[in-house]
């Protein structure tokens, strides 16, 4: 399964990472390589747009948790948007929606 | 070695002579056999070419001009093949070594799991845990105290394979450090969480569900740390309900409270605990629905618990073309009628 990512710079601080495909044990390293550097910029506002992501497995969740911790260490923020039902359920069941900010609204901003 | 080279030389000379006299199928067959033999003896491609030239020159001392030189060129070309072949050989040996090591580790990992299910009067228990590859990231645990109370845990370590397996030992030793007397599920998860939080990489976590069943009062108390919901079958209503316990996965927040839930188990009722390898079963038509699992359980519900889990596993494995994508663990705990 393939994964593609694209960084859209909204401003100096605000970066949107658009992700498309499936995030699993095989594609997770690629997501990590693209996401983590964004969270390592002091005070960055990182938004991950998952509109085009059909499936995430637990390894994928781990990448977001790692990115969240990295963001916290760099005074940055991480926000997820555009989750489909299946993906959202995963965040709810694991209770990770308590620690990661997830947008309920549509992905207007990310377009 | 020199002796075996001579032997090979003679053998090849015979095969070639026979073939030159009569180009038969049989001759080609001998050539194939010879090729197996040189592979076994780890003889490189350029050595075979050189052998061919030697024999040829014995048969035809007056090779036309240029023939000998042309073989020298061919030898040079085959040299590259020979290098690649030797690399392949050494990789194959290394793979074998690694495989042997993983097998040892996998056997050791088996000892982390209970080797038998405790027998409790009035309870019918079935368990099946199958790794997707050699090492598993699924863990389960049973403990029985003197009062016929059973504690059971199911845990799924993020990812699979070796990293997950290494992490499992932490869970195993943590669980074993608790007294056999029943711990309250919520308190147990809070304790395990503290250990995991301090010992796990930032992008890893563990999901877990812990339940305890008191066979005197038939109370089932449980708590969950972000684990895939199981099912609760109510015999009186003949329905399956989702068995979910809210709580964050282990290893994320140091001080976390885990809410405890309670059920009164009636005769014929049963609890189904599972790992996400069961629900994330993927067929050509996409992911199976959770209802598909309850339908399967229903089909085999008249059987003993162990047979139900065995049948459900077989059906789901078949649906995925006998190729598990994730570790699979399914536990059924039924109060006998």
From TrEMBL, chain A:
Keyword Zinc: no
Domain of life: Bacteria
Annotated GO MF terms: anti-sigma factor antagonist activity
InterPro entries (UniProt xref): Anti-sigma_ant (IPR003658), STAS_dom (IPR002645), STAS_dom_sf (IPR036513)
Entry keyword set: Phosphoprotein
PROSITE patterns (alphabetical): STAS
Alphabetical list of Pfam families matching this protein: STAS
Ranges for domain STAS: 4-111
Family: Belongs to the anti-sigma-factor antagonist family.
Protein's job: Positive regulator of sigma-B activity. Non-phosphorylated RsbV binds to RsbW, preventing its association with sigma-B. When phosphorylated, releases RsbW, which is then free to complex with and inactivate sigma-B.
Protein name: Anti-sigma factor antagonist
Annotated organism of origin: Marinococcus luteus
UniProtKB/TrEMBL annotation, chain B:
Phylogenetic placement of the source organism: Bacteria, Bacillati, Bacillota, Bacilli, Bacillales
An annotated Gene Ontology molecular function: phosphatase activity
Domain PPM-type phosphatase: 124-335
Any single Pfam family the record assigns to this protein: SpoIIE
Keyword Lipoprotein found: no
Gene3D superfamilies documented for this protein: KaiA/RbsU domain, PPM-type phosphatase domain
Keyword Hydrolase among UniProt keywords: yes
SUPFAM superfamilies for the chain: KaiA/RbsU domain, PP2C-like
Alphabetical keyword list: Hydrolase
Domain of life per record: Bacteria
UniProt protein name: Sigma-B regulation protein RsbU (Phosphoserine phosphatase)
């Amino acid at each position: 399964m393939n994964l593609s990512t694209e960084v859209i710079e909204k401003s100096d601080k605000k970066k949107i990472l658009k992700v498309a495909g499936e995030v699993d044990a095989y594609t997770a390293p690629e997501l990590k390589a693209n996401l983590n550097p964004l969270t390592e910029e002091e005070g960055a506002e990182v938004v991950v747009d998952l509109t085009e992501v059909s499936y995430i497995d637990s390894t994928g969740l781990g990448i977001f948790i790692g990115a969240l911790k990295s963001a916290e260490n760099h005074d940055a923020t991480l926000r997820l948007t555009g989750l489909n039902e299946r993906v959202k359920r995963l965040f709810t069941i694991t209770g990770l929606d308590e620690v990661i900010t997830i947008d309920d609204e549509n992905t207007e901003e990310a377009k | 070695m020199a002796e075996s080279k001579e032997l090979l030389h003679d053998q090849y000379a015979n095969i070639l002579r026979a073939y030159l006299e009569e180009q038969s199928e049989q001759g080609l067959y001998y050539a194939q056999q010879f090729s197996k033999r040189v592979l076994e003896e780890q003889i490189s491609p350029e050595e075979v070419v050189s052998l061919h030239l030697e024999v040829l020159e014995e048969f035809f001392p007056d090779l036309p001009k240029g023939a000998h030189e042309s073989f020298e060129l061919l030898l040079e070309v085959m040299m590259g093949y020979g290098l690649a072949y030797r690399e392949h050989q050494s990789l194959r040996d290394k793979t074998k070594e690694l495989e042997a090591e993983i097998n040892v580790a996998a056997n050791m990992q088996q000892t982390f799991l209970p080797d038998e299910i405790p027998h409790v009067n009035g309870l019918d228990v079935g368990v099946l845990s199958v790794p997707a590859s050699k090492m598993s990231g699924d863990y389960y645990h049973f403990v029985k105290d003197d009062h016929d109370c059973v504690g059971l845990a199911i845990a799924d370590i993020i990812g699979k394979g070796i990293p997950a397996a290494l992490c499992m030992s932490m869970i195993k030793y943590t669980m074993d450090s608790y007294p056999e007397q029943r711990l309250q599920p919520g308190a147990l998860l809070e304790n395990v969480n503290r250990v995991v939080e301090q010992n796990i990489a930032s992008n890893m976590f563990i999901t877990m569900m812990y339940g305890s069943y008191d066979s005197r009062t038939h109370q089932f108390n449980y708590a969950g740390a972000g684990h895939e919901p199981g099912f609760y079958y109510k015999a009186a209503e003949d329905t399956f309900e989702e068995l979910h316990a809210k709580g964050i996965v282990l290893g994320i927040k140091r001080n976390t409270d885990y809410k405890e839930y309670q059920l009164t188990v009636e005769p014929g009722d049963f609890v189904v605990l599972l790992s996400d390898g069961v629900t994330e079963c993927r067929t050509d038509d996409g992911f199976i629905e959770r209802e598909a699992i309850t339908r399967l359980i229903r089909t085999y519900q008249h059987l003993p618990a162990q047979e139900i889990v065995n049948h459900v596993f077989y059906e789901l494995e078949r649906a995925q073309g006998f190729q598990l994508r994730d570790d699979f663990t399914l536990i059924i705990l039924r109060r006998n009628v």
